[in-house]
């Protein structure tokens, strides 16, 4: 530490708190330890009786917390992420710069936080995010940090840890199956749900076709929706259980595409199906989507809309956190479901 005149302190780092007392009005901290003194601070410091202040004099190879935090944020922040304009107390906040799906490299995040003296904290991987939402932050623990710690982090992390994948608008064809709906015995309840969930992300249903439990007709309609209607995505509803007359999964398989999974470790949503016809995703949505507020569809849909090609491993990972608690007040996606 070094004592210097206030007038000579611009750009220096306070090594102590500075207290201000206004009798009958205020008593508290005017400047916090670690504050970098600015030109406009001089008058205020003099007005509270501070002709001199004690400041840090960082040696070569040392960094102030704010400078280190900037380097950390530059290291971890990727596409679709904005940072806070104000940086103080060694902390930088991260915000979504667009609507999308938050992607976190969890392994690199763990390695970075294992270095000590620096932290990066985020929301969960694969969380649907709205533009402007806070998604993470980085902070340096000591006021003055050895630059070698930051260099170690920069050598360890070669790719960005945090990004927001943009959600794209898609034209979706809905194929509803079931003799009970086709022959008018009951009214279809799927379409309003699908429209609402797609509409939240700016996508639309371009058509709905209601078919009986006829495997050939279902396959034919899927291919027609892709080749003639130019749908970007197919959602099949109904006929997704293991009953002998539930033929929708077989019809999807007969399209000749890639079956990723029939079944998911997600409740509600165990009978979910995911396939791809070339690059067109085909989602087989089980009946739980009609009556449960949150299901497998809420977890998978935003990732599909962000053009992520999901694998069997992606679906299997949902087993940890894949149980919806059906809370009376739903806070999805900021809850345990899918985390």
From TrEMBL:
| EC number, UniProt record | 2.10.1.1
Keyword annotations from UniProtKB, A to Z: Magnesium, Metal-binding, Molybdenum, Molybdenum cofactor biosynthesis, Transferase
SMART domains reported in the protein's UniProt record:
MoCF_biosynth (SM00852)
SUPFAM superfamilies linked:
Molybdenum cofactor biosynthesis proteins
Example of a GO MF term:
metal ion binding
- Which GO BP terms apply? Mo-molybdopterin cofactor biosynthetic process
| Pathway(s) per entry | Cofactor biosynthesis; molybdopterin biosynthesis
| GO CC entries | cytosol
What does the record give as the reaction this protein catalyses? adenylyl-molybdopterin + molybdate = Mo-molybdopterin + AMP + H(+)
Q: InterPro entries from the entry?
A: MoaB/Mog-like_dom_sf, MoaB/Mog_dom, MoeA-like
Q: Which cofactors is this protein said to need?
A: Mg(2+)
Please state every residue range assigned to the domain named MoaB/Mog: 173-306
Broadest EC class?
Answer: transferase
Pfam families, sorted: MoCF_biosynth
Q: Which CDD domains is this protein grouped with?
A: MoeA_like
Stated family? Belongs to the MoeA family.
Q: What does this protein do?
A: Catalyzes the insertion of molybdate into adenylated molybdopterin with the concomitant release of AMP.
Spell out the protein name for this chain.
Molybdopterin molybdenumtransferase
Which species is this UniProt entry from?
Clostridium lentum
């Amino acid at each position: 530490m070094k004592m210097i005149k206030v007038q000579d302190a611009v750009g220096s780092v306070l090594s102590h708190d500075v207290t201000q007392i206004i009798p009958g009005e205020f008593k508290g901290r005017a400047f916090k330890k670690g504050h970098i003194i600015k030109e406009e601070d001089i008058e205020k410091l003099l007005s509270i009786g501070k002709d001199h202040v004690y400041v840090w004099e960082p040696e070569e190879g040392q960094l102030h917390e704010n400078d280190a935090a900037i380097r950390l944020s530059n290291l971890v922040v990727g596409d679709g992420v904005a940072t806070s304009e104000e940086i103080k107390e060694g902390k930088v906040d991260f915000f979504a710069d667009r609507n999308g799906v938050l992607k976190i490299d969890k392994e690199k995040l763990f390695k970075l936080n294992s270095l000590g003296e620096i932290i990066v904290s985020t929301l969960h991987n694969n969380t649907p995010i709205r533009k402007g939402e806070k998604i993470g932050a980085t902070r340096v623990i000591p006021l003055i940090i050895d630059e070698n710690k930051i260099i170690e982090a920069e050598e360890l992390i070669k790719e960005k840890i945090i990004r927001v994948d943009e959600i794209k608008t898609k034209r979706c064809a809905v194929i509803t199956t079931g003799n009970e709906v086709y022959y008018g015995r009951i009214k279809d309840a799927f379409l309003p749900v699908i429209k609402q969930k797609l509409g939240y992300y700016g996508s639309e249903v371009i058509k709905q076709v209601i078919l009986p439990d006829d495997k050939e007709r279902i396959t034919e309609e899927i291919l027609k929706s892709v080749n003639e209607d130019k749908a970007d995505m197919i959602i099949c509803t109904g006929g997704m259980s293991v009953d002998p007359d539930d033929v929708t999964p077989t019809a999807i398989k007969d399209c000749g595409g890639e079956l990723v999974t029939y079944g998911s470790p997600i409740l509600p949503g165990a009978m979910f199906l995911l396939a791809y016809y070339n690059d067109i995703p085909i989602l087989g949505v089980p009946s739980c989507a009609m009556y449960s507020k949150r299901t497998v569809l809420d977890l998978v849909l935003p990732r599909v809309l962000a053009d992520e090609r999901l694998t069997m491993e992606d679906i299997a990972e949902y087993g940890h956190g894949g149980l919806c608690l059906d809370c009376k007040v739903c806070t999805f996606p900021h809850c345990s479901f899918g985390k």
